[in-house]
Amino acid sequence: MTDDEIRQLVRSAIATHLGGQAPAAPRVPPQAGGQPAHVAFHRYPLVRSDGDTACLIEPAVTCNHCGYCQCHGH
Asked: What is the pLDDT of residue 20?
């Protein structure tokens, strides 16, 4: 049994105990191969001007497109 299946069972048990319905599982974008990726690896779109080459995290260095500023930092 996976962690997600266990979480869903716990949510269902709590909802049943409280007299409500279990909340829907959060949607996670699929990764290559159709398997859902973990939320920590999701990247947010970041619009930057054409001339902007400074890193958003450390402005003294040039951006190397690591993606840290587009994610949750994991």
From this structure: 64
